[in-house]
Design a protein that fits this description.
By secondary structure, the chain is α+β, with helices and mostly antiparallel strands. It is about 45% helix and about 25% strand. The chain is built from nine helices and seven strands. Strand 3 and strand 4 form a beta hairpin.
């Protein structure tokens, strides 16, 4: 099982040659430079994300100051197919930067003792990277719809079908292209976004009603039903495990 072990962030001008016994995810949020993994040379800038497996020698160089989150994962989780160095680019909405920021906040607040909240956030981050690793080229309107779903996920009035109608493509074809690229329907994708955030809110101590409303479910009974269908647990039971 791959578990979250260490979180850090800093402004740097360089990083010496080193390696870790754990896997590492670096998320660069400011500045630019070059990262080296063995003999591989990887230019980085804001939004660059690098996954490094354990025991790989690496270092970084820059002519300016840059900011980086680094996250170490211990062990191996067969559910996640990341075993070789990989480079990703964050979304236009800085999705992974926001996740890393939330992870760092939770990690620091708990005085260097990762708990269920940090594990939930770390798993969410890994799920994004795994999906990007296995993704195939997508229709540009699939990306557009995904951005709409992420942006509007907190809006209780948001309707997936209405959003799809605003795009210059048939709803049926867009739904097929979306499911082929993402592995789930647009509605399932939106539901997973909402439930994943609700899980973090519940772990932080938010009430079931407030957590549901925060992620777009104004009816707490409907939220509880959707949460149970998605996770196999009632939100109140999930919250009690924190």
């Amino acid at each position: 099982m791959l578990t979250f072990e260490l979180m850090g962030c800093a402004y740097l001008c360089s990083s010496p040659l080193h390696r870790h016994a754990t896997s590492e995810i670096s998320i660069f949020t400011a500045g630019s430079g070059v990262a080296f993994i063995g003999e591989q040379r990887i230019p980085f800038k804001k939004g660059t994300i690098i996954f490094r497996p354990p025991l790989v020698m690496h270092w970084e160089e820059s002519e300016e100051e840059y900011f980086e989150y680094w996250i170490h994962g211990k062990g191996h989780d067969p559910r996640h197919g990341l075993t070789q160095p990989r480079v990703f680019q964050d979304t236009s909405n800085q999705t992974l930067e926001k996740i890393a920021s939330a992870l760092n906040e939770e990690y620091q607040l708990r005085q260097m003792k990762p708990d269920a909240v940090t594990q939930d956030i770390f798993s969410l981050l890994l799920s994004y990277l795994e999906r990007w690793e296995n993704s195939k080229p997508k229709h540009p309107l699939v990306d557009k719809l995904m951005q709409m779903l992420v942006k509007q996920m907190h809006d209780p009035e948001f309707e997936v079908t209405a959003a799809m109608k605003t795009l210059p493509i048939s709803i049926g074809y867009l739904r097929t292209q979306f499911e082929q690229a993402v592995g789930k329907t647009p509605i399932q994708f939106l539901t997973d976004l909402r439930i994943n955030e609700a899980k973090m809110l519940l772990r932080r101590g938010m009430s079931v009603k407030a957590a549901g409303a925060q992620v777009g479910y104004e009816d707490p009974y409907y939220f509880s039903r959707i949460f149970f269908q998605t996770t196999g647990m009632r939100p109140s039971a999930y919250a009690s495990e924190r």
